[in-house]
Specification:
Layout lengths: L9 H8 L13 H17 L1 E4 L5 H14 L4 E7 L20 E8 L9 H6 L2 H11 L5 E2 L7 E6 L4 E5 L6 E4 L10 E4 L8 H9 L7 E3 L6 E4 L5 E4 L8 E6 L1 E2 L8 H8 L13
Antiparallel strand pairs: 1-10, 2-3, 3-5, 3-6, 4-13, 5-12, 6-11, 7-10, 8-9, 8-11
Length: about 280
Amino acid sequence: MTNNTIPNGSSTIAASMIDLSQYPISDLSNAESRAFADRCRLEYQQTGLCMLPGFIKPAALESMANETAEFSDKAYFCKSSHSAYLDDGDPNANQSDVANRQEQTYVGSVAYDLIPQNSQLKQLYQWDPLKDFIGHVLGKTNFYRFADPFGACSVNVFVEGGEHGWHFDESEYTVTLMLQAPEKGGTFEYVPQIRGQANEKEIVGSILDGDRDGVVELPFTTGTLLIFGGNQTLHRVTRVTGDKARLVPVLCYAEDPTVVNSESVRQLFWGRSGKDAQPTAGG
């Protein structure tokens, strides 16, 4: 059974990976930690993202990246086309309408149950202070690690030709950690907080046509933790080239400790229905 039980000593190991002198997140009852978390919360509210470069210390980053690369061959790869809205489109509109225009995505994902239990990534994910800090930034009163046995904390693997086309996320937010950058490409680009604007479709259409006006390149350097409100912001990952994979763990949380992905989502991203899989112990 996959679970979120923290092995002995993991709490200390997780804390040692993070640059706590720059990012004091270990105890939100502490005035300094609370003040820092409040600033991050305000930044997220105002911009739709909170980016913490150098969150993972250099030595820990190298070790975690090497460790993750060792099990990256367990990734299941998905190649698909989709609209910017990740839905079935608008049958009443023509194919040139932004609701129906197709973007390309090719990415692999290592499921949570294939990541070694004693790995540094799992120890980091299972560290309560990290969960509590992220929940505070997002303004969540109830906040738990995701109970899905495949999607709790997976690793996105972008190899040669890998990319993620322009889209808005279905989920309210995503939490990612850049462990390894590719030789070329793999740039995170976004157009901030345009969902719901009166000219939203016009903006989306121009971006799909290649217009760079309003496009921001995020300096998503290795060791950076990113909390991102992707359902309000159009974004993509540009095509990767070279032999070095782009490795980005996705740390998932929920306000309900029992919620899991649908079987169709599991099949799409990890190639398994998961009907017999055991949920993790969310917490």
